[in-house]
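Letters spell out the chain; the tokens describe the backbone. To illustrate:

===
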Amino acid sequence: MPELPEVETVRRGLQPAMEGAKIVKAEARRKDLRFPFQKDFIARLEGQTVTGLGRRAKYLMADLTSGDVLLMHLGMSGSFRVLENGGSKNTLGQFHLPRSEDRAHDHVVFHMSSGASVVFNDPRRFGYMKIIARNALEDEPLLKGLGPEPLGNEFDALMLAQSCHNKKTSLKAALLDQRVVAGLGNIYVCEALYRAHLSPRRLAATLATKKAEPTEHAKRLVGSIHDVLNQAIKAGGSSISDHRQTSGELGYFQHSFQVYDREGEKCQTARCGGIVRRFVQNGRSTFWCPKCQK
């Protein structure tokens, strides 16, 4: 599933086509994605201008002049691409698994006054879209209970320690809990734990003292989370900027995994000499170096 850096890169790629532009026509080419479309889905979109395009955790959020917000989730296989003047632009974002451009899976299309058409493609249909009144967002079940943004001002070692205080779960399971921190997924949790030299099997409670104060492990981990996400987003942002200046195309997010999907390879930590291993944890593949992650 796309994680925070991929979704943020897609948001930045969609901004030129959508932000400040009116939705002249909207198409829902089927009755549902993961969930059924609202009966008034099209009516609440057409004629509205997108005043801002934001992100919350793994959700894209388009503010409309009506006071509504279009909430969009990519699901497992969803992606956006932009068509301008009859020519196709590349699918926005680079994902660990390739995204489809099979037109049979083009399920939603927004025709914008900017001259662009924004197409949502989703072969597995695990993505979804929902229109919510802005003043009702706090009570929206899909958003309610989400933890802090990992790159926001609220998220620091103290907050993480307090969230993990007395938790009986593993450190990896805690970081994947969207109530603890929003937007992290399997890939970047593996990467952050690797950089912090912390075992994914370590108890989450070890990030806090008995008084719920952050340990050195918590401080190191928060720094690693910041570094991993910032570097990933920066790579995507730089790519978008470079492509605009040369070919005019939107850039791709560039992955640079140090541990994820590197089973059997030599650990990249200097003077470690360990081998990256994989095991299944909470139904997901976990990649780590048993030698330097404790």
